[in-house]
Amino acid sequence: MIILGIETSCDDTGVAVYDGNAGLLSHVLYSQVEPALYGGVVPELASRDHLRKITPLIEECLKRAGISRNEIDGVAYTAGPGLIGALLVGAVYGRSLAWALEIPSLAVHHMEAHLLAPLLETHAPEFPFLALLVSGGHTMLVEVSGLGQYQILGETLDDAVGEAFDKTAKLLGLEYPGGPKLARLAEQGHHGKFKFPRPMVNRPGLDFSFSGLKTHTLTTWQRSDQSDQTRADIALEFQSAVVDTLRIKCHRAMEQTGLRRLVIAGGVGANLALRSALHHLVKDLEGELFFPRIEFCTDNGAMVAFCGYLHLAQGERDGSEFIVRPRWELTSSQSG
Ligand code: KG4
Ligand code: ZN
Questions:
Q1: Count of H helices and E strands in the chain?
Q2: Are 308 and 3 spatial neighbours (Cβ–Cβ below 8 Å)?
Q3: Domain 125-291 coded CATH 3.30.420.40
Q4: Fewer CB atoms < 10 Å away: N or C end of the chain?
Q5: CATH fold of 2-115+296-332, please?
Q6: Residue of the nearest CA to atom 16 in ligand 1?
Q7: What does the pLDDT look like over 58-113, one tens digit per residue?
Q8: In Å, how far are 83, 129, 157, 202, 269 from 246, measured between CA atoms?
Q9: Torsion sign over Cα 56, 266, 115, 320
Q10: Which of 83, 298, 300, 327 has most ligand 1 atoms within 8 Å of CB, for mutation?
Q11: Which residue out of 239, 268, 303, 328 has the highest number of ligand 1 atoms within 8 Å of its CB and is therefore the one to mutate?
């Protein structure tokens, strides 16, 4: 079964072809440039850019996969959560293409696609596992019992981790999306000059909160000498506070569930300090850590093609109604 996957939930247009026998045949990605110019994603501009790029990207992706349209057996597209105009581009395109080719289509949940992305790798986790989903829009700990069987153990009460990284980076004067830039700046930082809190770790439970940390960074920066070294020191302390908090909650979740396979997924999963901290945690607990390659941590078409393939192979299909869901609970996408 060969599936074309389309991702247009935010500001990346991703397309991929996944073959149930041969694996991933090709994937292409276009990352929009406007967000860096405007300090964030402008929804209407993002939609128009998706519209401009989607046809050439699909052509390119099929060419790289060495197949024609007629060889596709199904189309999977991100139907939410995300920006409504952006989602509509991928959904309308995906459904129209499937209709014209008389093949099934399937609406994919963006976070489920992130969650399953580590299964694309040769070192893939078996079910059940624990997943830390950390992206620009979401932060959650999920117990994954099987395909479509997800229980959310903890979520952020305010900002998502990626959002906290981006907002903190902005107030330190870094360009959008600031997360990776802040991580690079932190490499030049030294510990010890500033003390940052570890939010919510003294409270029971697995929920997160990151907005206080962002405010703490702002006041620390405003009261500092604002030198380049201070900027790097603050970036390092912010990153360490986030990473420590995530590590402590992952530890707690592993103890609570008894699960020893931990998956990191979502854009912030590209953060090397986070990967390293979780690697040590899992080693101490004699568990195993899994993550997608860096390019499949952030938004991409491969995870959508793959997630769509797993569901389509089970016989799931879109109904006749056309729906995109800018807000969509992960647990309401469950099949099991
Ligand atoms: O999953 P993703 O590509 O898009 C969403 O679905 O949100 O995640 C993007 C987020 C952004 O907030 C970006 O700053 C953050 O992931 N990010 C990072 C790193 N790479 C991407 N944050 C910290 N360190 C990184 N290396
Ligand atoms: Zn994402």
A1: 10, 10
A2: yes
A3: yes
A4: C
A5: Nucleotidyltransferase; domain 5 (3.30.420)
A6: 267
A7: 999 999 999 999 999 999 999 999 999 999 999 999 999 999 999 999 999 999 99
A8: 27, 17, 14, 13, 11
A9: negative
A10: 298
A11: 268
